[in-house]
Amino acid sequence: MYVVGIVSALKSEASCLMNLRFPVMKVANIDRHARLCLSSMGDEAAQLASEVLLEFGVEALASFGVAAALDKKLIPGDLVLAEEIIDTGAENEILPVSLQWRNRLEQMLSPKLTIVGGSIAKSTMPLTSAQAKLELGEATGACAADMESAAIARIAAREGVPFIAIRAIVDPLEFSPPDALLSAVYPEGSVDIIRLTSLLYNRSVKFKTLAHLGLGMYSARTTLKKVVQVSGKRLGCDPDDSERYDPSEYAEQD
After folding, report:
1. pTM of the full structure
2. By CB distance 3.0 to 4.6 Å, which of 62, 142, 202, 253 could disulfide with 121?
3. Digit-coded pLDDT (tens) for 172-211
4. In angstroms, rounded to a whole number, what is the distance separating the alpha carbons of residues 75 and 169?
5. C-alpha dist (Å) from residue 146 to 43, 44, 94, 104, 243
6. pLDDT score, position 239
């Protein structure tokens, strides 16, 4: 039975798998055959977390968390089980997903959740406007975006291990976290309360905006918890139906 390594960027994502708090870049044993690493946001952090998990002997990798919608049809709480990952930092290179693992998980979850396929595109920074989302969607054809899945997919392809991306929509196309708010958020998603209070006092961020964001995260986390409840902490991985890849096809170029 495969040992699955799961990368989550945010504490709010990781807490859907394990209630206890643990530091960034530390590996937590959440099941006999599942390991979790909290990476913090971004491509480099996700790559490092993937490599740390592989050092702990995991045999499959999963990107687990939230995503921004690039498609106007998607709403908070919708689940994106990507069929491919688009690395926008490498001229829209397509990175593979274990479709057998992905399809198996969809079959397990389909009676419970709204699920879409398609592509997840890499975003190099948080998307803070509908225009930025539209431009990324038009450039890639992706339905959703996040900052970590491409890095995890690349490591999985390089090492020849199965990979899956499980991402719940947190913000729809027409609503995004404002730039000002990001200055009060740490890389692992926790909030600088003093800074946030100042932003609210100066009206740089509105209470209405916070409430909207909070509802989106609640919907996304509800979906992620349902995934774990139905599929287990190994996220439905089965060695009999998770294909491996030839690492030579994805060797990094000098």
Report:
1. 0.91
2. 142
3. 999 888 888 888 888 888 888 999 899 898 888 888 888 9
4. 6
5. 9, 13, 15, 23, 24
6. 61
DSSP secondary structure letters along 127-185: --SHHHHHHHHHHH--SEEESSHHHHHHHHHHHT--EEEEEEEEE-TT----HHHHTTB
Domain ranges, residue 183: 4-249
Q: How far apart are CA 225 and CA 227, in angstroms?
A: 5
pLDDT digits (tens, 9 = 90+) for 19-53: 888 899 999 999 999 999 999 999 999 999 999 99
* Six token digits for residue 197: 């209070």
Q: How many domains does the chain have?
A: 1
Residue 96 belongs to some domain of the structure? yes
Q: How would you label 18-36 residue by residue, b for 16+ Cβ within 10 Å and e otherwise? A: beeeeebeebbebbebbbb
Token readout for 66 is 């939230």
Decide if 39 is inside a domain: yes
Angle formed by the axes of helices 43-55 and 149-159, to 10°? 40
> Beta-carbon neighbour count of residue 166 at 10 Å?
26
Per-residue tokens: 108: 């397990």
Question: Higher confidence at residue 189 or residue 13?
Answer: 13
Mean pLDDT of 217-241: 90
Q: Report CA torsion sign: 221, 226, 77, 49.
A: positive
Could you tell me if 151 and 48 are in contact, meaning their C-beta atoms sit under 8 angstroms apart?
no
pLDDT, mean of residues 14-19: 94
Q: What is the CATH number of the domain that holds 136?
A: 3.40.50.1580
Residue 254 within any structural domain of the chain? no
